[in-house]
Every structure is written in structure tokens, then in C-alpha cells.
Amino acid sequence: LFKILGFGDDASLMSAVISGVVNVVATLVSVFTVDKFGRRLLFLEGGSQMFICQVIIGIMIASKFGVTGQGSFTKGEADLLLFFICAYVAAFAWSWGPLGWLVPSEICALEVRPAGQAINVMVNMLFTFMIAQVFLTMLCHLKFGLFFFFAGFVAIMTIFIACLLPETKNVPIEEMNRVWKSHWFWAKYVPDHVVSEAYDSKKAVP
């Protein structure tokens, strides 16, 4: 990506290293803050930051390369672009990156947790592979529009979290059915007997 945007070989390598370091550090931020601030807050903050960065990157590339793909960045503009790319990487690394593995393991009841995690891993790996295969091709065809394309999906993801994902911080797995039952949308899909059975099972544990 950096080479396509006009960065030299050394600059491309250094930019990749910088973004990689940011990724590692930001992931550690998530490790130490997820139980303090909760999953929803990190999801919403990370999604908002990712959306803003995608739009700004798209605008910067559109202003310099347009639809022809011909253009170049000055050093200052390249540094600014790298900053927003790193801001995007950081937002993903402390929100959607690790929480995409954590939250699915928390929201499934014990009875279906293995199947739920298996589906989560399969879908995650499948779409990671697909995006990696088509990203450069899409960039060549959509050019700056690709970043607005992904920004749209980030917006949808963030709205989904805001409206449909309950907070799972400090919620035991045994209590998840009760959490779903108390949610304004998902309550109609959770039978009452499932919640009562989970409650009875918890009471039966010595």
C-alpha cells in the first residue's frame, strides 16, 4: 500500500515498521483497559476513530491522485497520511481486533460456545483471506473510493454495536441468557425457560 501511494522503498519499509509497532502497543492498551472501560466503549470509540481516519485518508488520496491515479505526496503530506494510517491501525488494535475474538467467546451460552467460537474463527479467517486477496485489485479499480467503501462498513459495524450489542463486562457466561433476555431487541428471541433453567442451574451449584 505504501509503495502504491508513492512512498520510496526505504520509506515504505519504515512506514510498515512504524504501523506494526503501533499495532502491538495499541493491542496492549486493549489488554489493560478492556475490563476497566468495557467492551462497548472500546468498540464505539475504535469504530468512530476508524471511520474518521478512513474518510480523511480517502479525501487526501482523492485530492492528490484523483480518478487517474497520477500524483504524489510531499514529505509533509506523506507524514500526515502515515499519522492517520497509524491512528486507524491503533483504533483497530485496541477495539475490533482483539474484541472480535473476546466478545464472541463471551456472548454464547455454554451449550453452544464451542460451535459459536468455531463459526467465529471460520468467518474471521475467511474474510481476512478474501480481503487480503482482493485489496490491491480493489484499490486499483476503486482508487480513493476504496477507503470510503470501507468507511461505510465501519459505520455499519459501529451502529450495530451501538444498537444491538449488550455490555458483557463482568458478566459470567452463565448469565448471558439473562442479558439477552433483558435487551430491547434480542429479548423476543430468547425463550423464558432458557433464562429460568440457567438460573436454576446456578442455584444448584454448591
UniProtKB/TrEMBL annotation:
One annotated Gene Ontology cellular component of this protein: membrane
PROSITE patterns on file: MFS (PS50850), SUGAR_TRANSPORT_1 (PS00216)
Main location: membrane
Keyword list, A-Z: Membrane, Sugar transport, Symport, Transmembrane, Transmembrane helix, Transport
Annotated membrane topology: Multi-pass membrane protein
Cellular location(s): Membrane
Bilayer-spanning residue ranges: 12-34, 41-61, 81-103, 115-138, 144-165
Residue span(s) of domain Major facilitator superfamily (MFS) profile: 1-169
A Pfam short name: Sugar_tr
Keyword Ubl conjugation in record: no
Gene Ontology MF, one: symporter activity
Family stated for the protein in its record: Belongs to the major facilitator superfamily. Sugar transporter (TC 2.A.1.1) family.
Protein name: Sugar transport protein 10-like
Organism from which the protein derives: Trifolium pratense
Lineage: Eukaryota, Viridiplantae, Streptophyta, Embryophyta, Tracheophyta
